[in-house]
Structure formats: structure tokens, C-alpha cells
Amino acid sequence: MTLTKLVVVLCGLAAVPVLLAHATAAETKSSPNYDAQIKQLQQERIAALTKVVEMRLEQYRLGAQDSRLLTLAQAELLQAKLDAAEKAEERIAVLEEQAKLVTTILTETQNRWKAGVAHESEVLDAKANLLAIRQKPAKN
Predict the structure, then answer these.
(1) CA separation (Å) from 3 to 12, 14, 16?
(2) Is 65 left (phi over 0), alpha (psi -120 to 50) or beta?
């Protein structure tokens, strides 16, 4: 067998798992319950992340952690909600809701900075996060 034929055969074998995965994904997406299952998973993700944000905000207010873990959780919640939004109106509502949350975080962080218990970088992180939310498009 020539080297060229060997390469062609090996490349063909390497493509088999990819093709099978693609076929399985296509079959799954065409099943009647696929959309409902995805929606359910999205709602579970949102519920879990909402609880995480609430807990981390409380921990932040008590001074038990800095704002970075809170900011990460909020960003994950934002993405989860945007992933679940199907219409531009829903995305706008999510962005407005998250902007309010981040405004609260920014205010808390500014107060902590003024009191000398937070670093200015935390204030800037919160401000940058708010600006990023305000720049996100309402389109999918």
C-alpha cells in the first residue's frame, strides 16, 4: 500500500466518529421532546445560577468574599438567560434585569471601596460589567 493510500484510509477512519456523532445529534434534534428537554435544562440552569448569585451577593455584603466570584456567577446567569430567550423582547428584558443587578453590585462595591474594604479594581470590574451588559445587542 502506498503512503498516499494509507493516509487516505487513516483520514477516512478518523472521520467515522465525527460522522456518527453528527448523525446522532441530528436524530436527537429531530425527536419530538428535544426542544422541551432543552427548555427544561435551561430553566434548571437558570434556577441554579440564580441561587448562586443570591448566595454570593449575600456573602459579598457580609464581607466573606470579594466581588470576583459574584461577577462570574452573574455573568453565567446572564448568559444562561440569554441562551433561553427566544425573542428580542425577552433578551431586552433579561439585559434590563441584569443591568439592575449589576448596578446594585456596583453600588455595593463603591460603598465598600469608600469604606476601605474593597479595592478600586473591584469597582472598575463592576463598572466594566455593567457597560458590557448595556452594549449587548438584543438580537440572537
Answers:
(1) 14, 16, 20
(2) beta
Alpha-helical runs (H) found in the chain: 3-29, 34-61, 67-84, 88-114, 120-135
Whole-number pLDDT of residue 137: 78
Q: Is the pTM of this model over 0.70?
A: yes
The secondary structure element, H or E, covering residue 122 is helix 120-135
How many other C-beta atoms are found inside a 10 Å radius of the C-beta of residue 19? Answer: 10
Sorted by where each begins, the domain ranges of the chain are 1-30, 34-135
Residues in CB range of 28: below 8 A, 6 or more apart: 34
Task: For residue 1, give the DSSP letter.
Answer: -
